[in-house]
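[audit] Reproducing an earlier prediction to check determinism. Same input, same settings, fresh worker. If the tokens differ from the archived copy the diff job will pick it up downstream; this log only records the rerun itself.
[audit] input (388 residues):
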Amino acid sequence: MQKYIKSCLIEQFYVTFAKKNSMAKKVLVVTGGGDCPGLNAVIRGIVKSAEYEGDWEVIGCIESYNGLLKDDVEIVDLKDKDVAGIHVNGGTIIKTTNKGGPFHFPVQQPDGSWKEEDRSELFKKRIDNLGIDVIISIGGDGSQRISIQLADMGINIVGVPKTIDNDLSSTDFTFGFQTAVQIATEAVDKLVTTASSHSRVFILEVMGRDAGWIALHSAIAGGAEVCIIPEIEYDPKKIVEKIESRYKSGRGFCNIVIAEGAKGLDGKITGVKPTALGDPNIKLGGVGDKLKLELEQLGVKHDIRVMVLGHLQRGGTPVAYDRILATAFGVKAFELVKDQKYRTMVSYRHPEITYVSLDEAVKRPNNVDPETSSLVNTAKKIGISFGD
């Protein structure tokens, strides 16, 4: 990819870039939030659709919106050759971040301290000067809320749902989720053999924030005995009962899958406040160790080990399902751009790839409903305990 980066010569940068690309309509692509398997497939779908149409140019904004918010502007032209074969790669070729953004951008002050600034007007000025016609924002709930704010400023924008958590209610699935489930399931499979060999209790902590979908799917697929999700507050005494039922003959083993956002009877999550300026998200983690301590305090004598799967769930090659879904999302996003259907987000409603308004997209989260979820019912009927 050829980069166009300027700092002090920013105005000349506008002139050079606009002149070079004066004949085509322009779409700016951003990838925001955590990285996710399938991001590159979306970018590829957009670029190939634009090339097929023939009168559009695709520009990538490096590190989400920050590429146009920094004093040193960083954007790239994206051509067919730049996206060849990238659908099999994890991550995103135009980088991503969950810090900063147009409305909360961290700026270092003369005294060395940092302060958040609203750079949304500067952002709008820069996209106007560059002749950007529309933005495609690939991101989750937080990213699409930023999309709404930008749309309120009169900026044309189309969203693409991205999250391994599968926590957007306006789409049946988000790309990246199936890959994360596959990785978590493979981890459960491996822990079953080592737990059995050593007669141990293994606690596998997986991602998902406030939604228990990764934990629920991987627990069923991997054959875990306990699944703890944020939507069901767990009682450690109930988990002890399940564990001991696995050791009736003296030897046994037990595998527990716990979502990072799981809560005990006190309703509190486990994590730390963010320290980086421009990052609003509590850093979840440690709930597996918390549960281990609770079980030991309740008298469990079996050897308990904790494994935090962490960012392994975000990395690597996306599974075929996610490559296909992400590619279809990219193509649909460009169709919405071409048809001038702005302030919308791509959505998958089986079997169709469709769209919803951005306002509808973030209206409510997609959490597991313990009362109505067929998967919760399935898990209970095969003997999985939720600690309730």
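[audit] rerun output stored. Observation attached for the diff report: The CA atoms of residues 336 and 342 lie 7 Å apart.
[audit] end
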